[in-house]
Amino acid sequence: MALKLGTKIVLSITFIVFLCMAGLMLIITTNVDKEQTALTEKLLSAIADESKEIIDSNINGVYMALASIAPRLEEIVNTSSGQLAQERLEAQVKNMLDANISGMYAYAYIKDSKYTGPNITNPRNKLENGDFMVLAKDTQPDSVGGIELLPADMNILAFGSVKEALQGGKQTIGNPRYVNIAKQGDRLGFAVNMPLKNKGNLVGIAGIFIDLSEISEILLDPHLSAFSGDYRVVLSSDDTIAIHPDSTLLSSDFREKSSHPSAAAIHKALEQKQDGLFEYTNYKGVGMIVELKHFEVGVDTGIFWNVLVMAPKDSVYASLHSLQTTIIIAICASLLIVVLFVYFYVKFNIIARIHTISQHLFGFFACLRHESDKCPAPLKPKANDELGAMAIAINEGIEKTQSNLDQDSALVSESLDVINH
């Protein structure tokens, strides 16, 4: 189907305008996307840093309490024994626990023969295997006091970090596990342990168990959020989930709970202790932007934990999507205005005038073919433009042609008159 001239003009202009606006939208959204990604990385990085500092300050507080009390415990064990020495050990363990606000339980396990079997004066401090242990609980972590002594518990010796400290004679920081200490109920936490030595030989360990519930409450507080639906996740050195808004995932392996192919880059970064920004689909199938940061816990321990700040893509790019929608609406509205303007302008200012000129020419040609007795009247130019100049030229041509035709007609008439007479 052949298109009319006006339709071709309107379609051509519409297509060009559409291409220009689409290109403009692409340029704007691409640049906004880059800026949004950079801003997101800064925001998530700042949250990760703050989360890291919260965890680090809690662990370092425990570490400093242990470091300050451990020499006193060693001095008591190495230089004295009996009831008075054991009471002094109890007092030091209570002081160690009360000196920080992060620990919930504190303990001192002594392997020295002077503190075993019948040498233990208080049955509360005697383990099932006959060894000596002081175990304390802080019932008021946020204030001074509130320390109570509990019966020694073999579950302490089952901690992986305690076993590691006893075997290696070095300070250890455990991975989060649910434990039941002295039948006080299951709690998710980990232990920080420091060896006690006598002339290089291990005589025991001192440790503090940190309950993660209070730290979780701080890290999951909405005041740390930068985007709707974002949250923080903390992983220990073996990728155990220590903090997560979904309590069903706590103490589980992050790798097992993040099996989506998009998690491969995060797993690799965890292995190589690399920080970075990643796109990731979480265990619920929600697309997330993730900022990963690793940090050393304790002082020169060589043990690294990780903070992941996760924000839904829809939330992160909500402003970009809003901008894209606004631009698309603006483009459609602008395109409609341009199309209507071009359509009516072409129809009434170009096509209508061309139609008038063409009809005038057709009338002139009919006159030349003697299909009409009279040539059309002169055109009235509507504007001083190309079509106006064309109308003037046509008028002049018709006028001259009409004059010539009149002269020819007069000559013919005269010739006929001569012949007739």
Largest sheet: 7 strands, antiparallel
Structural class: alpha+beta
As a whole number of angstroms, the C-alpha radius of gyration is 45 Å
Please give the number of β-strands: 12
Stretches where pLDDT is under 50 for at least 5 consecutive residues are none
In short:
The protein has 421 residues and is α+β, with helices and mostly antiparallel strands. It contains nine helices and twelve strands.
Description:
It is a single chain. The protein is built from nine helices and twelve strands. By secondary structure, the chain is an alpha+beta fold. Strands 1, 2, 3, 4, 5, 6 and 7 form a seven-stranded antiparallel β-sheet that branches. β10 and β11 (287-296) form a beta hairpin. α1 (5-79) packs antiparallel against α8 (318-368). The longest helix has 75 residues, at 5-79. The model has no long low-confidence stretch (mean pLDDT 85).
Features:
seven-stranded antiparallel beta sheet; 421 residues; five-stranded antiparallel beta sheet; alpha+beta
Task: Give the topology, please.
Layout: H1 5-79, H2 82-98, E1 103-110, E2 132-138, E3 147-150, H3 160-168, E4 172-173, E5 177-180, E6 186-198, E7 201-211, H4 212-219, E8 231-235, E9 241-243, H5 254-257, H6 264-272, E10 276-281, E11 287-296, E12 304-312, H7 313-316, H8 318-368, H9 386-420
Antiparallel strand pairs: 1-2, 1-7, 2-3, 4-6, 5-6, 6-7, 8-9, 8-12, 10-11, 11-12
Helix pairs in contact: 1-2, 1-8, 8-9
